[in-house]
Amino acid sequence: MPWYRARVEDAWLETRTARTVVLEVPGWPGHDAGQHVDVRLTAADGYTATRTYSVASAPETGRLVLTVQLVTDGEVSPWLVEQARPGDQLEVRGPIGGWFRWSARMPEPVLLVAGGSGIVPLMAMVRERVRAGTDQPFHLVYSARTPDHVIYTDELHALGLTTPGLRVERVFTRAGLPQDGRPPGRLHREDLPAVSTTRVPPVVYVCGPGGFVETATGLLLGLGHDAAAVRTERFGPSS
């Protein structure tokens, strides 16, 4: 799998600790929504550091969008979140991942369950659905600490209002909004739809920290979802 030279085209903060970076990648063949890439930085003395990040953009050639959560003691995320500027260069390798991906050719309804920055590959799926103009029912349940921790907050709000068949729900674990009917707290059974509430069982994608993924998967199985239909992706402190 070759390394591609990438140039930072644009970048902006999504939250105080998460940043979207747009990369121009000549020769990039494209990817499927849900896949990830390796990112390699090389210092002036030749030292290299590599980390893996999910792709946030819908599939396209020659261009990638990453959204990176800051890890304060990391080697790659501090540069991407705090220092990368248009014109800076790095290397990427991929696309990587065969199981945790979605394309418009898949006809089943989709349930997306995100914890924190686990929204990134699921947002790629939402964006690809919008780009392709398909009508599969999509239901996103996004768990974040507070409203200030929600990545893509304006885009998700707009898509939830204007995209037929897309349902967006946000739940907060630490503090919510005054109008919220749900008190803050960790994801629980009532936050997720049971299989009995859908005509066709959905394909389920769950992404977030390991503990969140384990909890969400257990809740989904308890609600009647088939284990074979639940696709999970976990990330750790260095990813």
UniProtKB/TrEMBL annotation:
Pfam families: FAD_binding_6, NAD_binding_1. Its cofactor is FAD. One of its GO terms (molecular function) is oxidoreductase activity. InterPro entries: Cbr1-like_FAD-bd_dom, FAD-bd_FR_type, Flavoprot_Pyr_Nucl_cyt_Rdtase, FNR_nucleotide-bd, MRET, OxRdtase_FAD/NAD-bd, Riboflavin_synthase-like_b-brl. It comes from the Bacteria. Transmembrane segments: none annotated. CDD domains: FNR_iron_sulfur_binding_3 (cd06217). Keywords: 2Fe-2S, Iron, Iron-sulfur, Metal-binding. Residues 1-102 form the FAD-binding FR-type domain. This is Ferredoxin reductase.
